[in-house]
Specification:
By secondary structure, the chain is α+β, with helices and mostly antiparallel strands. The chain is built from 3 helices and 4 strands; from the N terminus they run βααβαββ.
């Protein structure tokens, strides 16, 4: 996963802890991405339903369980050579 674009990070843990829905915030961040960019999401759980949404948009992903209530998920588009 070598990307030449920028990395856009969004930490939705405070939103989730406030018992609010972060989907709109996530989609706004995704909308701002260029094809070469990487999106890094910080969440309190592994957001499996989001994976399907992002796959439909052409993204690959990896999820890392960083610690209690902290998942880091990286999304990127496969480069077309």
């Amino acid at each position: 996963m070598t990307q030449n674009g920028k990395t856009v990070e969004l930490d939705v843990r405070p939103i989730l802890k406030a018992k609010k829905e972060p989907f709109k915030d996530i989609m706004e961040a995704v909308k701002s991405l260029e094809p070469e960019d990487t999106f890094v999401l910080h969440a309190t759980f592994k957001p499996v339903p989001l994976f399907k949404v992002m796959e439909r948009k052409g993204f690959l992903y990896e999820a890392i369980h960083e610690g209690k209530s902290h998942w880091i998920i990286r999304f990127w588009k496969e480069r077309k050579e």
